[in-house]
Amino acid sequence: MLGNGQAVALHIAAIRKWILVAKLGRAARNVLHALANPTRFLKLARPLTPLFFWVGTALALFGAWAGLTQTPPDYLQGESVRILYIHVPAAWLGMGGWSGVAVASLVYLIWRHPLASIAARAVAPAGALFAILCLITGSIWGRPTWGTWWEWDGRLTSMLLLFFVYLAYIALARADADRGGDGRVPALFGVAGTVLLPIIRYSVVWWNTLHQGQSIGLTSSKIDASMLWPLWFTLFGFTFFFAGIALMRMRTLLAQAKVEARMKRMAQS
After folding, report:
1. Residue 230 in contact with residue 85, Cβ under 8 Å?
2. Torsion over CA of 196, 201, 249 and 186, rounded to 10 degrees?
3. Hey, is 74 helix, strand or coil?
C-alpha cells in the first residue's frame, strides 16, 4: 500500500509527464504547420535538393566501388554476394518509401495540409523505383544462389505486392487529382497499404522461405566487418539520393499546382 504522500507524488509526476508530452506534441504540430507553408518549404527545399542529390550520388558511387573492389568474396556465395551493396539499400528504401507515403497521408488526413498530400505523391514514384530495383537485384542474386531467377517465396512475393501497391497508389492519386478530388481516397489507401510492411519484414520468420533471415540489426550484424563497411556508404548514399528525388518531385508538383491555379484565374477573368 502506498501512503498518501507517495500517491500524491506519483500523481504529480504523472501530471508533469502528460504536460511534457502535450508540449512536445504542440511543438511538433507547430513545426508541421511551419513546414506546411509552401513558401517556407520551397525556401528550404531549393538548396537541399541538389545537396542531397550530389552527396547521395557520391556516397553511393564510393560505396559501390568499395564493395566491388575493396572487400573479399563470401566463403559460400563467392563474388555474387557483392550485389548486396545495391540490393539491401533498395529493399530498405522500397519499404521506407511506403512508410513515408503512409506518414504523409496520415498527416494529411489529420491536419488537412495540402503539402502532406504532395509529399506522399512525390515519395511514391521514388519508392516504386527502389522496390523494383530490389526485385531485380534480388532476382540476379538468386540465380547463382538458389539456382532460379524467381521463386514464389514469402519475401519476394510480398515485395512484389508492395511494388504493385505503389503503382496502384500512383494511378489513384493521379486520377483523384485529374477529377479535382480532395485527396482523401489516396491518403486512406496510403495508410491502408502499411499492412504489407510487417508482412515483408517478418516473412522470413513466419514462413519457411529460401530468403535468408535478418543479417543486420541495430546492435549486431552477421556480416563480417571486412565486408560490411561499404554497405553503410551505399545505404546512406541511396537514402540521400531518395530524399533529393522526393524534394525535386515536390517542387515540381507545387510548380504545376501554381500554374494550374493561375490558368484557372485567367479563365475566370
Report:
1. yes
2. 10
3. strand
Pairwise CA distance, residues 185 & 109, whole Å: 10
Question: The whole model's pTM is what?
Answer: 0.83
Q: How many CA atoms does the CB half-sphere of 219 hold within 13 Å?
A: 0
Report yes or no: 145 and 77 within 8 Å, Cβ to Cβ: yes
Q: Tell me whether residue 196 is exposed, middle or buried, using C-beta atoms within 10 angstroms of its C-beta: 0 to 12, 13 to 18, 19 or more.
A: middle
Backbone angle region of 224, left / alpha / beta, with phi > 0 → left and psi within -120 to 50 → alpha: beta
Residues 13-43 as b/e (b if ≥16 CB within 10 A, e otherwise) read eeeeeeeeeeeeeeeeeeeeeebbebeebee
pLDDT digits (tens, 9 = 90+) for 83-114: 999 999 999 999 999 999 999 999 999 988 88
User: Rounded CA gap, 243 and 37, in Å?
Assistant: 19
Instruction: Please name the amino acid found at residue 265.
Output: R
